[in-house]
UniProtKB/TrEMBL annotation:
Domain TGS stretches: 288-363
Species, as recorded: Euphydryas editha (Edith's checkerspot)
Pfam families (alphabetical): MMR_HSR1, MMR_HSR1_Xtn, TGS
UniProt xrefs under InterPro entries: Beta-grasp_dom_sf, DRG, G_OBG, GTP-bd, GTP-binding_2, GTP1-OBG_CS, P-loop_NTPase, Small_GTP-bd
A GO MF label: GTPase activity
Name of protein: Developmentally-regulated GTP-binding protein 2
PROSITE patterns: G_OBG, GTP1_OBG, TGS
PANTHER family in the record: DEVELOPMENTALLY-REGULATED GTP-BINDING PROTEIN 2
Length: 364
């Protein structure tokens, strides 16, 4: 019995098991087995064979965005519209057969956009080069999920399920669970809040499934068994996701309004170039990028060539972005902008900067 058959057997077992107090331990154990088999499926086989054609592209620019979606939803058209790169687009499925990178130049930042081949149901098991597509998505900073506004909602659920099964968690935070394997001393279980979804017995059963008998587990929030399994495996990727609904010129205005009001959703039409500016604005927000400008003493700020950094960065990160030896030589910094009480404010290395701040660095 192969891994795929085992996975389908467990999925059928979970589907036909009633969810109640009596079966929650059994379901927890099945979920742990399912996650274990899926991680085995993702691991490359030990047998040395001919290496396939390379699929991933060298990471470049300030951020990386992966375009994922079913065939013929307009991924290549979006890439050609937003960037200067041409990606072949035609009215038949699987026009794009490899990864095509493009660069979006927006607010002084270079955002790498990857046009990936369309994925089909069962991509996580390797159908239609699906595994390579999903592997590239794991390396991105943001997933841009292209959907056809004329197709049913089930398409979005299918894509989410494919990404979930390979350990990509969309628009979720990492579970606040402290987990550490120990040499001995058995299982130490504790929680700082009331747990309603798991208890000590279930945690013990899930850990035993992974042959872990000595560990320290601390729940800092009310998490489910699935989230505990994610923490134990430790190979999950938590990515922001933007759902882009294309072909809105083919549906009614009421339907467009309904889709646009859904969380994390943007409606566009690549063919008629509708709402693409708002898509870029939302993309910038989700990537949490900020611009910081530098200033030489006695000269106006250099607004042409800003530093592109992530939200929450400090003066130390600004120093590293200019030169790695600068942080050690810094005496203080003068900052103009919204992160200060008055402008200019003299600040230290731990000061957090905001978008469009102007920084002047003074060396020792």
């Amino acid at each position: 019995m192969g891994i795929l058959e085992k996975i389908s057997e467990i999925e059928k077992e979970i589907a036909r098991t009633q969810k109640n107090k009596a079966t929650e331990y059994h379901l927890g154990l099945l979920k742990a087995k399912l996650a274990k088999y899926r991680s085995q499926l993702l691991e490359p086989s030990k047998k040395g064979g001919d290496k396939g054609e390379g699929f991933d592209v060298l990471k470049s620019g300030d951020a990386r965005v992966a375009l994922i979606g079913f065939p013929s939803v307009g991924k290549s058209t979006l890439l050609s519209t937003l960037t200067h790169t041409h990606s072949e687009a035609a009215s038949y499925e699987f026009t794009t057969l490899t990864c095509i990178p493009g660069v979006i130049e927006y607010r002084g930042a270079n955002i790498q956009l990857l046009d990936l081949p369309g994925i089909i149901e069962g991509a996580a098991q390797g159908k239609g080069r699906g595994r390579q597509v999903i592997a590239v998505a794991r390396t991105a900073d943001l997933v841009l999920m292209m959907l056809d506004a004329t197709k049913p909602y089930v398409h979005r659920q299918l894509l989410e399920r494919e990404l979930e099964s390979v350990g990509i968690r969309l628009n979720k935070n990492k579970p606040n669970i402290y987990f550490k394997i120990k040499k001995g001393g058995g299982l130490s279980f504790n929680s700082t809040c009331q747990l309603t979804k798991v208890d000590e017995k279930m945690v013990q059963m899930i850990l035993h499934e992974y042959k872990i008998f000595n560990a320290e587990v601390l729940f800092r929030e009310d998490c489910t068994a699935d989230e505990l399994i994610d923490v134990i495996l430790g190979n999950r990727v938590y990515l922001p996701c933007l759902y882009v609904y294309n072909k809105i010129d083919q549906i009614s205005i009421q339907e467009v309004d309904r889709i646009a009001r859904q969380p994390h959703s943007v409606v566009v039409s690549c063919n008629m170039k509708l709402n693409l500016d708002y898509l870029l604005e939302t993309l910038w927000e989700y990537l949490s990028l900020i611009r910081v400008y530098t200033k030489k003493p006695g000269q106006p700020p250099d607004f042409d060539d800003g530093l592109i950094l992530r939200k929450g960065v400090t003066i130390e990160h600004v120093c590293h972005a200019i030169h790695r030896s600068l942080a050690a030589q810094l005496k203080y910094a003068l900052v103009w902008g919204t992160s200060t009480k008055y402008s200019p404010q003299r600040v230290g290395i731990a000061h957090s900067v905001h978008d469009q701040d102007v920084v002047q660095l003074i060396k020792k």
